[in-house]
Amino acid sequence: MLKDYISAARRTQKAELVLKNATYADVFSGVLRKGDIAVTGGRIVGIGTYSGNEEIDCSNYTVLPAYTDGHVHIESSQLSPEEFAALVVPRGTAAIIADPHEITNVCGMEGCKYIAEASQRVPLSVFLQLPSCVPATPFETSGATLSGADIQNNIQNPYIFGLGEFMNYPGVINCDGDVLKKLQAAHGAGKIIDGHAPALTGYDLNAYLCGGISTDHECVSGDEIEEKISKGMYVQIRHGSSTQNLKNSKYITQKNCRRFVICTDDRHAVDLKEKGHIDDALHRMVCDYGVDPITAVTCATLNAAECYGLKWRGGIAPFYIADLVAVDNLKDFNAQIVIKDGKIVAMGGKPLFDVSKRYLPETVLHTVRLKRPLAAEDFKISLKGNRVKAITLQGGGIVTGCDEVEVRSQDGDVVLEGSDLLKLAVVERHKLTGNIGKGFIKGYGFKGGALGITIAHDSHNIILAGDSNSAMASAANALKDIGGGMVIAQTDGKVYALPLEIGGLMSTRPAEELIKESAALLNRAYSMGVKREYEAFMSLAFMSLAVVPKLKLLDTGLFDVEKFSFTDLEV
Asked: Cβ(103)–Cβ(115) under 8 Å?
């Protein structure tokens, strides 16, 4: 194609597509410029005065490089990769750095392969990171394990772009042998390593960075951001659904702005549909935090490309990949035209590509396995005394507390009536162990049955909360029958379910259907007493995340994250 590129650039032959009269973002210089943008063979060939076989008048738009999400788990949208693309591409996103950490914890390398294959069917560049921490901790039962040897064997796969967020920072700074094997495998393959290092500073940060890690999306303070940038890291500003640090935009300056990248990490389907993706982050950065629009766009484009070594991406210049978005203004960032690899793929917020034929291999289906059908007796909690530890929630976050609560027992089981306690259970669903971790959650508000979900970070066992043993058993059995998802089992025997058949994490249905069914189930949960300050189901999904303080419940027992060891339920 070089001859065609050069000839079209010199205007000795017509370009295939020309965006006429465009005002466009020069992210290299940080200014707006004007000119026709000529495209041939999927690349930009020039800016100036051009004619093309197809021409689009962009005099009412501002043309930007299309966006890159610097770190995202597609699974958190609860959508297939195809449906995920159908929501984010019309918003102006052309590339994502995807970490399939969730489905890999369930399905192993087959989960990675599924994401890679399904992503080939949509106009979205998916750069796949090999998850580095499967499982996240050695204390629970996950569906798969990726050891250092497994990373060595798989990091060379052509569909693997890099090594996913390295959450096990204690293993890095303490030179754990298996951890070092994983890092060395990535370096040997010449692939980037993403980071995850909340509040890590000083000599420990120095040690962590000597693992060859490049990014972090967990910064919480200006001092932390300044130190990490000064030590060569890229800081990712996160705009997820459950966790956000968009306020870190206020620390962007003219001097450090080239070291920030935008990511979403975990963003739910309803937020993608109603609020947006990277475009919503740009809107918030500009309107809420006063970031210069071109600086914000640069974080979402050129910075991301340079951070991840994506050559010829992230800018509007000759020979750059023609991934472009025309927006109506630089405050709302409403995408009017989206171009991917030189082809128009979305207009007016609607995709121009078909996602109705989804890739669904058997390897990611039927992943909820129970040793036997569960019964009410499985959820009895017999105590020696009358004081227990109960998990408490904090609205808007995933950190949990621990309260010591007095309870009463009858007939060998705790009585919940008259209290603000629910039973909490984590049922192992991968290896047929029969493990059931049991505990209590305080202040959730739900009454009259049980809620259950197979999204349970990070090993994704079944999490149940309820005030009825029989309803908890019904919920668990229903989750097995539907292949995973979310359920409410009422004490009257009625069961309401939302199937998430792909790994128990993602839906096989269109986004519109998923969003509608999810809203109905959420409304039922709130009508049964769940406090509105909590996300009815996704709050439960973090109750087994044993890397976030304070108290968590695993299939193997109650876990004190601060002491990083198991703890007794009774005080």
From this structure: yes
Residue 237, H or E segment: strand 234-238
Q: What would the mean pLDDT of 70-92 be, rounded to a whole number? A: 97
State the Cα–Cα distance between residues 500 and 360, nearest whole angstrom.
13
Would you call 469 exposed, middle or buried from its count of C-beta atoms within 10 A (0-12, 13-18, 19+)? Answer: buried
Q: How far apart are CA 419 and CA 265, in angstroms?
A: 36
Q: How does strand 160-166 pair with strand 260-263? A: unpaired
CA within 13 Å, CB half, 138: 6
The proportion of the chain whose per-residue pLDDT surpasses 90, expressed as a percent, equals 92
pLDDT digits (tens, 9 = 90+) for 44-78: 999 999 999 999 999 999 999 999 999 999 999 99
State the residue for tokens 């707006």. Answer: 32
Annotated domain spans of the chain = 66-311, 365-566
pLDDT of residue 68: 98
Give the separation between CA 322 and CA 327, rounded to whole angstroms. 16
Which segments of 268-307 does DSSP mark as H helices, in order? 269-274, 278-289, 293-300, 302-307
Q: Two tokens at 323? A: 């991934």
Q: pLDDT digit string (tens) for 219-251?
A: 989 999 999 999 999 999 999 987 889 999 999
Q: Which two tokens stand for residue 436?
A: 């059931």
Q: Per-residue confidence at 396, pLDDT binned at 50, 70, 90?
A: low
Q: Taking 90 as the threshold, does the pLDDT of residue 398 lie above it?
A: no
Q: Would you tell me which CATH number, out of the four given (3.30.360.10, 3.10.310.30, 3.90.1170.50, 3.20.20.140), belongs to the domain 66-311?
A: 3.20.20.140
- Tell me the whole-structure pTM to 2 decimals: 0.94
Instruction: Compute the CA torsion angle 426, 431, 434, 435 (nearest 10 deg).
Output: -40
Three-state DSSP class for residue 323: coil
Name the phi and psi angles at 101, rounded to 5: -60, -40
